[in-house]
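[#protein-structures] MJ: dropping SGNH/GDSL hydrolase family protein here for a structure pass
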Amino acid sequence: MNALTNHPPTRRPSPIARALLALLTAFGLVAGAAALPASAVPSPTYFGLGDSIAAGTGGSTVVDAACLRTAQAYPTQLHGTNLGCFGATTTEVQAQAAALTGAVKTVTITVGANDIGVGSVANVCMTQDPASCQTAIGAATMALQQLPTALTNTIAAVRAKAPNARITLTGYPLLFTVSGLSPTQQPVAAEINGATALLNSTIATTALRNGALYTDVTWRFLGHGIGSPQPWIHVPGDSANALEAFHPNDNGYKYGYVPAVRPFVQ
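AK: finished. structure tokens for SGNH/GDSL hydrolase family protein:
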């Protein structure tokens, strides 16, 4: 018996039923009926490179466990090919650039935090004594002096593979809404925010000096840092995955990074 030719007769749905089905599909209420999202077919002309922020670590839908890459990543939401990976430094991003071609029109890069150990600084300062915090901040500040050269080499590596691409570097959000923290936490949080601002300034200056662009995200996260009523950044301990701490959550990517980067994507 041929299953392909032995179907029972089907009845065409009435016009009212077809209209209702179309309405439900439009709102995504019919399982399997909605069209495949555009982000499922990444653009071959836009590539997102970078660290865990580019990877979308902290988003709710993990698509690559090895890199902690999620569907909430800003390159993915902007329909790009996302090569971001948790822990990536400028050296790893230069390796990511090997996938680019002359047909690429847009490259966005989020990198620099791992080069100077921002995550380690945040963890030390939030869990250890003030002296340890100052030591960690001092080490990060020293490492920051080497970052312009590393970023310059990264931009050059991208340009060598995609000479016609618009290259945009992004900054990082300030992690804390200082006013919402306890008086004992405020000094440390303010120092970490200050170190992040210095990192962003270094990235912006280096990008512009090398013919790349820069997009700031700090103002979009204002009022949504750790300590705020509605944080867009994972508070340490609020997730089963400790690696998500200090990373944007779904709202942070959707309302923070995506609108900041969108104008730079061709």
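MJ: nice. The radius of gyration is 22 Å.
AK: one more thing. The chain has a mean pLDDT of 85.
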